[in-house]
Amino acid sequence: MSINSFGRLFTVTTWGESHGPALGATVDGCPPGVPLDAEMLQRWLDLRKPGQNKYTTQRREPDAVEILSGVFEGQTTGTPIQLMIRNTDQRSKDYSDIMEKFRPGHADITYWQKYGIRDYRGGGRSSARETAARVAAGGVAREALKVLVPDLEITGCMVQMGPHKINREAWDWDQIAQNPFWTPDAQAAQDWAAYLDELRKSGNSVGAVIEVVAKGAPAGLGAPIYGKIDTDIATAMMSINAVKGVEIGAGMGAAELTGEDNADEIFMGNDGKPVYSSNHAGGVLGGISTGQDLVCRFAVKPTSSILKPRQTITKSGQSAEIITKGRHDPCVGIRAVPVGEAMMACVILDHVLLHRGQIGQNRGPIG
Amino acid sequence: MSINSFGRLFTVTTWGESHGPALGATVDGCPPGVPLDAEMLQRWLDLRKPGQNKYTTQRREPDAVEILSGVFEGQTTGTPIQLMIRNTDQRSKDYSDIMEKFRPGHADITYWQKYGIRDYRGGGRSSARETAARVAAGGVAREALKVLVPDLEITGCMVQMGPHKINREAWDWDQIAQNPFWTPDAQAAQDWAAYLDELRKSGNSVGAVIEVVAKGAPAGLGAPIYGKIDTDIATAMMSINAVKGVEIGAGMGAAELTGEDNADEIFMGNDGKPVYSSNHAGGVLGGISTGQDLVCRFAVKPTSSILKPRQTITKSGQSAEIITKGRHDPCVGIRAVPVGEAMMACVILDHVLLHRGQIGQNRGPIG
Amino acid sequence: MSINSFGRLFTVTTWGESHGPALGATVDGCPPGVPLDAEMLQRWLDLRKPGQNKYTTQRREPDAVEILSGVFEGQTTGTPIQLMIRNTDQRSKDYSDIMEKFRPGHADITYWQKYGIRDYRGGGRSSARETAARVAAGGVAREALKVLVPDLEITGCMVQMGPHKINREAWDWDQIAQNPFWTPDAQAAQDWAAYLDELRKSGNSVGAVIEVVAKGAPAGLGAPIYGKIDTDIATAMMSINAVKGVEIGAGMGAAELTGEDNADEIFMGNDGKPVYSSNHAGGVLGGISTGQDLVCRFAVKPTSSILKPRQTITKSGQSAEIITKGRHDPCVGIRAVPVGEAMMACVILDHVLLHRGQIGQNRGPIG
Amino acid sequence: MSINSFGRLFTVTTWGESHGPALGATVDGCPPGVPLDAEMLQRWLDLRKPGQNKYTTQRREPDAVEILSGVFEGQTTGTPIQLMIRNTDQRSKDYSDIMEKFRPGHADITYWQKYGIRDYRGGGRSSARETAARVAAGGVAREALKVLVPDLEITGCMVQMGPHKINREAWDWDQIAQNPFWTPDAQAAQDWAAYLDELRKSGNSVGAVIEVVAKGAPAGLGAPIYGKIDTDIATAMMSINAVKGVEIGAGMGAAELTGEDNADEIFMGNDGKPVYSSNHAGGVLGGISTGQDLVCRFAVKPTSSILKPRQTITKSGQSAEIITKGRHDPCVGIRAVPVGEAMMACVILDHVLLHRGQIGQNRGPIG
Questions:
Q1: Torsion of the alpha carbons at D312, D318, D324 and D326, rounded to the nearest 10
Q2: Best mutation site among C5, C23, C26, C83 for testing chain B: the one with the most B CBs within 10 Å?
Q3: How far apart are CA D367 and CA C112, in angstroms?
Q4: Global pTM?
Q5: DSSP per-residue codes, B235-247
Q6: How many helices (H) and strands (E) in chain D?
Q7: Which residues of D40-63 are buried (b: 16+ CB within 10 A; e: fewer)?
Q8: D13 contact A CB<8A
Q9: Lowest mean pLDDT among A335-344, B37-46, B134-143, C113-122
Q10: Smallest Cα–Cα separation from D221: which of D136, D337, D138, D345?
Q11: Nearest Cα residue in chain D from C237
């Protein structure tokens, strides 16, 4: 298994560096007959694209995706889909100052320790730019899911910026597309704008928490023990740049609950399917989906490329102070929203396909 | 890849049900020449074993592990190591009441929805008993690591029970082995004992947070993008029964930090290796280990098998009330401590082997 | 992926040594609801069992298989099935003479070169005894296929012993179970008996060619490019001990054909499915099954453990002469017949499951 | 694991269709620090390139490979290497006649049966053009092997065309580069030229046998039971378009040998390493390399696209006669020679890396 791949039947291998000729994703295992063209994918890339407002890096690239294979006459053929995004804005000179110094909190030093090679151009493979390839691949997954699970709806949003959490009572799905932070709380959007402005001006950055919800996933997805759908969701999110924590349902807060509080009670719904009194489980029991909303959250750490001076060392082991100029995101979590959605789409599609492969028999009478 | 396996070069496949004839682990990829016998593994199993005090299930089994293959004249041969634990205390009658009803918060319903088959005997494959196989496999990993990374030390402990967190100022590594909760805070151990007693008597249960720390792991382990060591640690922990959240280093709290606060500053140590002012990164940058302590935490939800009555449905879709009798853990997180350690050992060994395979060249001058 | 595993969705990991406590197979990915018990598997093991006539090794073991997990109330549950066969006849003393010497043509020397460890007890992991585990696993696959592809029929037979090929004109399927060589040619069975008697008495051994035919496999199994069903069949057969060549359909003989002769012409059958004028393709085009018989052959080299003296070296590098006493097969190919059948069953089941996973849409109007 | 990938630590995923915008290979797991540029790869592609003489298809394409990622300042970085070859000569009109008809012996019908989608443009994914991507990836493997195993030499050649085998007594390695058939027998080259001319003029085609030899591979590569190096070589070769049989060492001929004849006797060489009296084993015992030449052969069937009329059916199930016009290879085996070399290079590199990962200890004193 390539260490740059994820997925079992629907597999995605991302490739490419921040400042190389191109980056992309090799997408294998998409079922045949799915309508697909580049515009369908471009739509999601445009959401992730930097430079759209003052809260994201000012690097400006069209991030235009090309489909090089696997699609014929507007439909997937069942063969590998190669997605390529050319890098066009490669101002490497911005990074010349950090050729010798390691940025604290950045992968500079560990890549050097592991590989003995330093691609100083904007982080090379460790750049958040790699996530563009994920978003493109997620777009393929979404189109396949439209065919296979038409009712599925995947939505990501920001629920915390720095220490500031949203008010969950004020949750409004329609707000998400209305503000630059993809937050469902209109008041939070206003407050965060002021907060982030100040941080940005001071050359600092801040972390965030993203929540991704999938509505309409069928019961029965996932498999014990190491193919649990919640494990796979956690894996997918943790693999995103800068993510330091992942939660399913009640998440870390599950530790505080009693068994009585935690157990989501079960009733029969009008459509003959089980309904639940609550969703502490985040839609997963024993690694298998219940049919409730799949809910996950992940924490994105603050960008380490900041204007604040920090102590570090050089490649030759000398002490040094570093300030990272260049065009960076004050809250890189913002751009992680569409990435989280893309990962969720990939995991769900993979499990829909796996479920079909695993189960040759009737399922139980309820699901 | 078997869905009951984890690992890339050091792979573990667990098998077996709570009340079947036996359970175990097929361990492949252990290097040859590692001294190994059953007692070395038994030691770890004894730590996880239920029934040792009033805070864990009263099911009493010796959990004696047999090595069926892969060891010759006291050494591993490089071939698969089969570990088997016979089930001896299979009081299936305890569960007869729940043959028809689904326990809220338990995998009963999803297994039924997915497989159309119900192994009502103590949860079958979804039982926490599966973790015995993990602990045995982790024991193999530990012995291999003793040879390959002699300085490595892996320690798990409980840092939160229900809403009660430890006082980190009072952290004392030596306390961990002194109390039934494996907590480094002596005062917390006392407080939790009283708290848990009460919960247990009321037939309720509660969640917990476990922290696992690996000291002495070399820099350079892990690989971008989907083979990151922190992702693999998170995957391993999330795959444990009842885990709902995983954190690396600052974890979910990273969202609250500014870039200035989060960036662990770098200095040169006296031994020519980098040292850091702090460890918000949890020992990992860009998915590759820094040489600092690897730190992860995970939240374990409360046992869903409780004496408190809850609403549920039956297999035939009728409403019902359920009380789960039987012998259960009031805080199953306690027994998750050695499981977390075992998973950490497996992941680190896998990455030590992977690193050797990936890198055919010199590493950089610092690492 | 464990290096002792094969398969993608239906995976088999074999474990165990010739003279250890036990050997077996961890079988994962079997669909739920398949009727299964130990007797169903024992039937196939009995066919492979040594000591049944004078043409196979006189080692006598019951080779009784136990199912340790994955089956509940007579049905598979969808969880891993652990199969264990205890070793009971472990006369290690037979091998004491070869502790220091490497048998020419045997894996003794390469295991030593690779692992620096020598399990001299009957070949350890490299013993043909490993194939018992494959046969047991293949039995599971056969039971699942009975449910999923009821018309499928898998038959192996011997078509060549030493230089003596069968007369294909005399092919009679019913003969296969009537002679100790599983050959469809009654006359060949008689001739081979005399030939092998002589070889056996002289302490020599000889090779063979096995053919395995699967009738009734549906069209559409397999996937380009590295998941071709013919590649997977070849992989499975080549992984069997002592196999040195594998052929699909016309096999090596395809080199001699012209395009005109090789192309199996296509017609419409009465049932609306394609029929073919011939089967040079062995039932596979472009890695995908056509619906014709899947046909593969493999060559098994002669046993290297013979009474004839051969030149070799010792572990310490001294020249030596070696005669391998002990109980060996004069034509180990005989016992490879049920092994080849088992591997074919595993590959076909895996591809049936994969096909279900890969294809979420309608297939074409013909298949 | 993507079904369009092969390899464990060094993985190659090929993508692209005959007449799409581009095709290529995603190469992951190449160690860092290997000198690499596009010219190094182009050299091997030029060997495989069609249209170089009258014996290969007259399609003319530069087949220029671009390296899109994974290389920085002339060296591999340890991150995925994306190789892209644009398709420039896409005369789709040549194929318009076969949009409805299935070519006998071709994957047309099975792709249709499996996917329900027909990429009639030159075979789409099933075209031999896919092998260009393999050759490019093999070029990467060769460069890495230059660093890791400097003495390794991999050479492929044709040893049989149609019924005409070479005279092995006349084997001359230097002849291989001197004739259009890459055969080591000068006389055969002359005879085959006349034979193939006639076939080509008559619109027919013919099969061939290719032999690939790797000199200088160290002992100890490969691993029992399903990670045997000979199994992996067989898998790699069988996955090539049109291959119907694979042999290691004595191959299918091993069936004819006695144990006495087959066992390669062992002696101590002057350099303290074992030497062998013969190489029936093809350099592999028990799935592990001995240090002798690794020898494999594979049979390539004749091209099914021929000018001879054949009976077939259409997509709608009507009987039809078909003649395949267009530009095809009378002996596609010729172009399989560099492909076989490339696959051998990939397998050996993968096993060199695996061996480093698997073995953490000293190896035995001989190897």
A1: -150
A2: C26
A3: 8
A4: 0.96
A5: HHHHTSTTEEEEE
A6: 7, 18
A7: bbbebbebbbbeeeebbbebebeb
A8: yes
A9: C113-122
A10: D345
A11: D231
**Which residue of C1, C224, C359 is in closest CB contact with A32?**
C359
pLDDT digits (tens, 9 = 90+) for D323-363: 877 667 899 999 999 999 999 999 999 999 999 888 754 44
Q: Are strands C153-161 and C208-215 parallel, antiparallel or unpaired?
A: antiparallel
Q: How far apart are CA A154 and CA A216, in angstroms?
A: 9
What are the phi and psi torsion angles at D39 (to 5°)? Answer: -60, -35
Indicate the pLDDT class of residue C212, thresholds 50, 70 and 90.
Answer: very high
- At residue A187, what is the residue type? Q
Q: How far apart are CA C219 and CA C233, in angstroms?
A: 16
> A354 by DSSP, 3-state: which?
helix
Residues in B 38-97 with any Cβ partner in D closer than 8 A: 78-79
In chain D, what residues touch B362 (CB-CB under 8 Å)?
33
Inter-chain residue contact B260 with A288, CB threshold 8 Å: no
Here the tokens at position B324 are 């789960």
Number of Cβ within 10 Å of residue A356's Cβ equals 20
Query: Using CA atoms in the order B223, B224, B226, B229, what is the torsion angle rounded to 10 degrees?
Result: 40
| Chains A & D: contacts with CB separation below 8 Å | 154
How many C-beta atoms lie closer than 10 Å to residue B37's C-beta? 12
Predicted confidence band at B366 (pLDDT cuts at 50, 70, 90)? Answer: very low
Could you tell me the pLDDT band of residue C50, with boundaries at 50, 70 and 90?
A: low
Residues of chain B positioned with their CB less than 8 A from the CB of D26: none
Select from D3, D79, D349, D353 the residue whose CB has the most chain B CBs within 10 Å, as the one to mutate to test that interface: D353
Distances, alpha carbon C251 to alpha carbons A199, C154, C158, D243, in Å: 70, 19, 16, 8
Strand segments (E) across chain D: 5-6, 11-16, 22-28, 65-67, 71-72, 75-76, 81-86, 153-161, 164-165, 208-215, 243-248, 266-268, 274-276, 284-285, 288-289, 294-300, 310-313, 319-322
Q: Residue B251: what pLDDT?
A: 98
Task: Compute the C-alpha angle A155/A354/D223, nearest 5°.
Answer: 125
What Rg do the C-alpha atoms of chain D give, in angstroms? 21
Neighboring chain B residues of A204 at a CB cutoff of 8 Å:
258-260
The 3-state DSSP class for residue C348 equals helix
Q: Residue B52, Cα to own-chain centre: how many angstroms?
A: 19
Q: What's the pLDDT tens digit per position in A76-90?
A: 999 999 999 999 865
Please check whether residue B32 is in contact with residue D359, taking contact to mean a CB–CB distance below 8 angstroms. yes
DSSP state, A75? E
Question: Position of tokens 């809220």?
Answer: B104
Task: Please name the residue that has the structure tokens 């995706």.
Answer: A65
**Mean pLDDT for chain C?**
90
Residues C340, C345, C347, C348: is their CA dihedral positive or negative? positive
DSSP state letters, C226-252: TB-HHHHHHHHHHTSTTEEEEEETTGG
Report the complex ipTM.
0.95
**Reduced to 3 states, what is the DSSP secondary structure of residue B115?**
helix
Interface touch A244/B244, C-beta < 8 Å: no
* Residue B175, both tokens: 């306390």
With beta carbons less than 8 A apart as the criterion, state whether B119 and B125 touch: yes
Q: How far does Cα B220 stand from its chain's mean position? A: 23
Distance CA D68, CA A24 (A): 9
Chain mean pLDDT for chain D? 90
Residue of B14, B66, B71, B72 to mutate when probing chain C, most C C-beta within 10 A: B72
